[in-house]
């Protein structure tokens, strides 16, 4: 278990005096160009409390993205200078962030310059002096050496003439400031007693420890959750201000999700520019200076450049009819878009569509578009990106891939548009969540028509007055294709980033039940799984018609519609919409739509017919495509436009399956290995775990995803006596994502081949008739809500059925028998009849 964090120790140290009573010195406040917010003052008060008592020299400020960590750094520089420190080494993770940071600390003409134009301490004017080595340091200056972690590492590992070296550090009092410091933990994360590695982290530590008066201040919004990293920072975190607190306190925009059923990019283009124009004109109405910015996010540099050209072409060819048609498809729930229509009609009446087109063509010219992917324009782009709020900055649209996920300070970003359709992954949605966190920064505004005090200017004002049209300036719109899987994964990533107004995830220690420890101690236990071990190159593989049809069978057809929905994103767990899917053939779609789709897509029938021997296109359509079972949404309407889109989607998938260079995973045979789970650490929401008293449950603490899992546990508890009659030793383990129990579908004739999952529970047992202490049975059990037990997850149940009675040898020369049960769906015996009857058979 971790000790108390530093700021908690300081609370004890100061007791009734209270840290709040500490005064931030005049020379700090008066030399900053911006006023400190309440939480920033609190962070500095903990800093002063530390130096008054504990005197910890290495501190971590764990503060949310957008909370103004750089202003705290500027305050620390002023205070350290007062304490006698004149030389500061400031390092970040990337060159792009570095250029922006230099402007913040050293460019007096930048709107984001952090100091007053004239810094005055003890009646002396202090200059900011950027240095390339410590020999350039000047008295009565704040000397800053700006670098990246990588460059600093290279500098000290490969010392060169006229550059910073370890020798320079002797007898120097230095302050090290590390921004985005979560990157500075590679050595700690990979800590291995048998391997001592001098990486980035070790080099920085060595430099910091070169003088026992040196100071090291780290800043990060996201501290890695590995045990070693958390242990490292347990006595260094001086102040925490989470993204959740930041948002809850009103310092962020509210986040709304705009979901487009139509897959065409033009819909997202138009939705975003209409929202942006509405905000711009609304701000003008209230005498608010605002130029809203849109960010279009693509999946590759090539796609970003292509999407930029598509956008320019789209604006060039925009007509009034496009505006009118777009608004016809707006869902009633789409609050912002509906309000924009009301606003436009009220202001411009019957000519609203024509007026909008003129505005959009003027406001979104190529001159006002910036693509951040050109490294040759990096320096110029950084200046533009760092000054988007400035009056003379005309950029309205940004096209990017990944360059803006970290270290980007922007307040007037109001629309983020996901243009890609790549399948969701944790890596993708984590980056999206980081970007959303940056876009959610609040744009402070005031108007001649109303008054707010200075502090309230930086916070949301209309949470309790949602009818006020100005709440449109307090929301961020995230535009995306209505992809259920992506949105579900994004919710999880947002949760991890802190943009979820729920209980935070906390560390839970899973301790093995004492009774289970005795079973393990006195038994020989093996568990079995298979592996997805490698890819096989099948460039020359000739796919058969049967395999092709099997691969495309069960294809999930997106819901094709022009409907657009908008809702505030609470980032709560959402129910997947797979219960809305139904299996159906394509035989209700006329041949003409497939033929037209083939022409549009440029499908070469000779190429597609290779190895298949279809007599004609008609034969291919009627006896292959229209004979395959696919999944449709029950909401899907079949009309001329939608039928064509469905035909195109099916053909595109068929074509890609046929033509791509196939690289597929191979699945190994099931193998046994010694059971060695032990105590574990997981991170769960506060309301997701509780102590359980079941003597047969492996861990004392049970982390549940649904009440259905509790129902299953109670079912086992009620069956305990029956199980004891058959098994002399047994226990059940809740699978908390343990790799030991992940299994992969090894049925080569199935489209789910090589897909993996982690069964929810695993039963281990030894029957009474067995004489030795070998637990010879391992049974996989999956809990499944009724809405998931259908089309999406049927393959799991079918695959588990194939494992029944499978016998695998162990090195102990004993056979381990695998068993499985159907899905546990409901505690109701009638609904769960299949599971109950199979469980009774299991006990025979």
Automatic annotation (TrEMBL):
SUPFAM superfamilies, per database record? P-loop containing nucleoside triphosphate hydrolases (SSF52540)
Is Membrane set as a keyword in this record? no
Matching entries from PROSITE patterns are given as: HELICASE_ATP_BIND_1
Recorded GO cellular component terms are: cytosol
User: In Gene Ontology terms, what is one molecular function of this protein?
Assistant: ATP binding
Tell me what organism the protein belongs to: Campylobacter ornithocola
The molecule here is called DEAD/DEAH box helicase
Q: Name one Pfam family in it.
A: ResIII
Q: Which residues form the Helicase ATP-binding domain?
A: 50-241
Q: Which UniProt keywords apply?
A: ATP-binding, Helicase, Hydrolase, Nucleotide-binding
């Amino acid at each position: 278990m971790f000790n108390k964090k530093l700021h908690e120790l300081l609370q004890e140290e100061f007791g009734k005096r209270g840290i709040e009573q500490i005064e931030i010195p005049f020379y700090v406040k008066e030399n900053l160009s911006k006023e400190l917010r309440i939480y920033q003052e609190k962070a500095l008060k903990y800093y002063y409390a530390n130096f008054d008592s504990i005197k910890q020299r290495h501190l971590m400020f764990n503060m949310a993205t957008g909370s103004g960590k750089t202003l705290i750094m500027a305050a620390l520089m002023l205070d350290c200078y007062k304490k006698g420190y004149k030389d500061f080494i400031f390092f970040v993770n990337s060159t792009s962030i570095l250029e922006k940071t230099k402007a913040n600390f050293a460019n007096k003409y930048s709107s984001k310059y952090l100091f007053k134009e004239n810094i005055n301490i003890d009646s002396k004017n202090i200059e900011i002096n950027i240095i390339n080595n410590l020999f350039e340091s000047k008295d009565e200056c704040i000397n800053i050496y700006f670098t990246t972690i990588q460059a600093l590492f290279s500098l000290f590992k490969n010392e060169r003439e006229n550059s910073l070296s370890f020798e320079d550090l002797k007898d120097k009092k230095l302050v090290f400031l590390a921004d985005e410091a979560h990157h500075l933990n590679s050595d700690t994360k990979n800590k291995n007693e048998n391997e001592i590695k001098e990486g980035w982290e070790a080099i920085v530590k060595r430099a910091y420890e070169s003088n026992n008066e040196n100071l090291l201040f780290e800043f990060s919004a996201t501290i890695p959750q590995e045990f070693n990293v958390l242990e490292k920072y347990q006595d260094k975190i001086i102040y925490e201000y989470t993204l959740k607190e930041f948002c809850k306190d009103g310092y962020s925009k509210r986040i709304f999700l705009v979901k487009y059923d139509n897959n065409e990019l033009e819909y997202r283009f138009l939705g975003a520019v209409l929202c942006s124009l509405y905000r711009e004109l609304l701000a003008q109405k209230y005498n608010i200076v605002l130029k809203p910015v849109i960010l279009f996010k693509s999946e590759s540099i090539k796609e970003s450049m292509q999407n930029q050209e598509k956008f320019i072409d789209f604006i060039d060819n925009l007509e009034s009819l496009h505006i009118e048609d777009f608004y016809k498809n707006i869902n009633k729930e789409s609050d912002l878009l509906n309000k924009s229509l009301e606003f436009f009609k009220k202001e411009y009446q019957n000519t609203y569509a024509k007026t909008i087109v003129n505005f959009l063509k003027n406001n979104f010219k190529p001159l006002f578009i910036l693509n951040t992917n050109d490294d040759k324009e990096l320096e110029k782009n950084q200046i533009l990106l760092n000054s988007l709020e400035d009056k003379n900055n005309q950029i309205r649209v940004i096209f990017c891939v990944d360059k803006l996920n970290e270290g980007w300070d922007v307040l007037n970003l109001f629309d983020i548009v996901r243009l890609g359709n790549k399948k969701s992954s944790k890596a993708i949605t984590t980056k999206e969540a980081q970007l959303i966190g940056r876009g959610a920064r609040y744009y402070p505004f005031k108007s001649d028509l109303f008054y707010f005090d200075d502090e309230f200017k930086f916070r949301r004002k209309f949470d309790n007055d949602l009818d006020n049209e100005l709440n449109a300036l307090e929301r961020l719109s995230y535009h995306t294709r209505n992809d259920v899987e992506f949105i579900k994964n994004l919710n999880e990533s947002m949760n991890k980033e802190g943009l979820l107004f729920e209980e935070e995830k906390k560390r839970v220690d899973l301790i093995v039940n004492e009774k289970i420890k005795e079973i393990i101690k006195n038994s020989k236990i093996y568990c079995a799984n298979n592996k997805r071990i490698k890819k096989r190159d099948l460039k020359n593989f000739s796919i058969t018609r049967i395999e092709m049809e099997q691969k495309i069978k069960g294809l999930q057809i997106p819901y094709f519609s022009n409907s657009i929905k908008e809702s505030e994103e609470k980032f709560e767990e959402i129910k997947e919409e797979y219960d809305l899917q139904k299996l159906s053939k394509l035989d209700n779609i006329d041949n003409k739509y497939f033929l037209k789709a083939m022409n549009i897509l440029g499908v070469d029938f000779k190429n597609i017919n290779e190895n298949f021997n279809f007599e004609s296109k008609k034969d291919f359509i009627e006896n292959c495509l229209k004979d395959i079972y696919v999944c449709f949404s029950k909401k899907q309407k079949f009309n001329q436009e939608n039928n064509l889109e469905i035909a195109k989607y099916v053909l595109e998938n068929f074509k890609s399956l046929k033509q791509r260079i196939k690289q597929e995973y191979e699945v190994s045979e099931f193998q046994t290995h010694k059971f060695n789970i032990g105590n574990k650490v997981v991170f769960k929401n506060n309301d997701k775990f509780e102590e359980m008293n079941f003597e047969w449950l492996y861990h004392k603490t049970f982390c549940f995803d649904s009440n259905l899992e509790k129902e299953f546990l109670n079912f086992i508890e009620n069956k305990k006596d029956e199980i004891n009659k058959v098994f002399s030793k047994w226990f059940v383990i809740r699978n908390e994502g343990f790799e030991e129990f992940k299994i992969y579908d090894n049925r080569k004739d199935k489209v789910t081949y090589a897909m993996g999952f982690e069964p929810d529970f695993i039963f281990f047992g030894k029957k009474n008739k067995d004489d030795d202490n070998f637990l010879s049975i391992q049974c996989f059990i999956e809990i499944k809500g009724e809405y998931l037990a259908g089309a999406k997850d049927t393959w799991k149940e079918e695959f588990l059925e194939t494992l029944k009675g499978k016998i695998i040898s162990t090195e102990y020369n004993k056979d381990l028998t695998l068993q499985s049960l159907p899905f546990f769906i409901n505690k109701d015996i009638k609904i769960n009849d299949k599971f109950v009857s199979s469980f009774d058979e299991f006990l025979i």
